[in-house]
Amino acid sequence: METIWIKEQELEKAAQLLLEGEVVTFPTETVYGLGADATNEEAVKKIYEAKGRPADNPLIIHVSSIEQAYEYAEEIPEAAQKIMEAFWPGPCTIVLKKKGPIAPTVTAGLETVGIRMPDHPIALQLIKDTGKPLAAPSANSSGKPSPTSAQHVYRDLNGKIAGIVEGGETGVGLESTVLDLSNPELPTILRPGGISRNEIEAVIGTVRFNPDLANHSDTPVAPGMKYTHYSPTEPVIIISEKGIGWEKAIKKYQLEGEVVGILASEETIKQFGKKETVMFSLGEKSDVISASRRLFKGLRFFEETKATIILAEPFNRSGIGEAYMNRLEKAAAYSVI
Ligand code: TXA
Ligand code: MG
């Protein structure tokens, strides 16, 4: 299939393709999404095919207003109303009991649906132009780091999707927080993301924080969390502050014949980067927002270089740092030295 590039000024082309049952990628404030009409079963199946996504991992639907969310949720508890008012449009997905004509494949057989209103003019316009909720996972091949630019999507999915709406680099760089409010008695963060636990608790009080529930439970709640994720071709190792340290770690892997990639703060690169290493800066050590914005880009950067292993820097877990560490730990399959 030919994948066409679509400019922001010709968004009606993208809307047209979506209404014809095709899949089209578009930017959101978090990462690029791979969209299809969420009410069209055949179209939604194409998302799973293009990504190679396991069939039991449900998709988020994207709406352009709070009113539109009411069409697809059986019940919107008070906590959900508060979250929508506080954070929509924005990077918080709310899981609620589903209703309405959503294609069964979207929710992978669950009785609940994840809904979010993205904070990006192109995404919002596209949803309005189609008049449909758009099912959209991150627009990467399953298992790869999520795409933060249209070029990332092109590399993974060229020839497998109908169109790519070009919209520059995304702002947040990590995916939305997934907050389960389907049982209002037990509000639970299933995936840390663009909105932090503190921000959520300031609005609705204490929430359970259990991003890896799916790994330890017989009944997975966020099925997506059990799969390996965000992995570039090269192995990733986290250089912990309490471990052997950058200098020794770099030497160790070089002696083993590896070309070392350093994915780290400006400060770490200045101090330990050598010319035999490949380096990608995440910004200043104190700026976890910048590190989050650049993490996926950095992981993908090394695929284009000679690096055979990536040594990566942990950041403070406060705020979006929780999401940064969650993605990095998964990319590294929890290997830390
Ligand atoms: O920022 C984002 O959320 C991006 C942009 C494109 O909106 N989308 C995204 O989608 O990250 P995806 O499919 O890559 O991740 C969705 C996550 C998965 O872990 C999935 O298991 C979980 O949300 N999820 C979706 N529907 C769910 C449901 N009904 N119950 C529990 N978890 C759900
Ligand atoms: Mg994803």
Secondary structure blueprint with pairings:
Blueprint: E1 4-6, H1 11-19, E2 24-26, E3 33-37, H2 41-51, E4 60-62, H3 66-70, H4 78-87, E5 92-97, E6 112-116, H5 121-130, E7 134-135, H6 150-157, E8 163-165, E9 177-180, E10 188-191, H7 197-204, E11 208-209, H8 213-216, E12 236-238, H9 246-255, E13 260-264, H10 266-272, E14 278-281, H11 288-301, E15 309-312, H12 321-331
Parallel strand pairs: 1-8, 2-8, 4-6, 5-9, 10-11, 12-15, 13-14, 13-15
Antiparallel strand pairs: 2-3, 3-7, 4-7, 5-6, 9-10
Helix pairs in contact: 1-5, 11-12
This protein binds threonylcarbamoyladenylate and magnesium ion (MG).
Structural commentary:
With 337 residues, this protein is α/β, with parallel strands linked by helices. It contains 12 helices and 15 strands. The protein has an 11-stranded mixed sheet, sandwiched between helices. A 4-stranded parallel sheet has the order 12-15-13-14, sandwiched between helices. Helix 11 packs parallel to helix 12. It is globular and about 60 Å long. It binds threonylcarbamoyladenylate and magnesium ion. Threonylcarbamoyladenylate (TXA) is lined by residues 28, 30-31, 33, 57-60, 91, 93, 95, 107, 110, 112-114, 116, 118, 136-138, 175-176, 178, 190-191, 221-225.
